[in-house]
């Protein structure tokens, strides 16, 4: 049996696929995880604003084939739930490099994807989820 070439193995480990995300279904509860507060949100108006923001960011994501970047600890993340349980998680992280872009990451039952965004967009996400602040 032939051995896989190191180049093919490297492509499999670091390869990525561009993708668009499906809209999140009905969300009934959101748990926010942030260094200054960890509220559980159940107000339908607040939840709708957050889901609208996330669904507005559905285009242009990168999906790693095997492994993706592990950026620094998230500035904030949210877990989304419907009546039957956990739907997914959305995180926002600062860039590793000073002055770099921010990173959104989505994990759900069947997908893991990330997207580079401007820090102003990441800061808008922090405002929408109710924790405010600015990414450095």
Short key terms for the protein model shown above:
about 140 residues, alpha+beta, Immunoglobulin-like, six-stranded antiparallel β-sheet, two-stranded antiparallel sheet, globular
Strand arrangement in the largest pleated sheet = 3-2-5-6-7-8
Instruction: Quote the CATH topology.
Output: Immunoglobulin-like
CATH class membership = Mainly Beta
- The total strand number stands at 8
Helix/strand order: HEEEHEEEEEH
Residue share in β-strands: 25-35%
Number of domains: 1
Structural class: alpha+beta
Number of helices: 3
Helicity, as a percent range: 10-25%
Which term fits the overall shape? globular
Terminal-residue CA separation: 51 Å
- Biggest sheet architecture: 6 strands, antiparallel
CATH architecture: Sandwich
- What is the averaged pLDDT score? 82
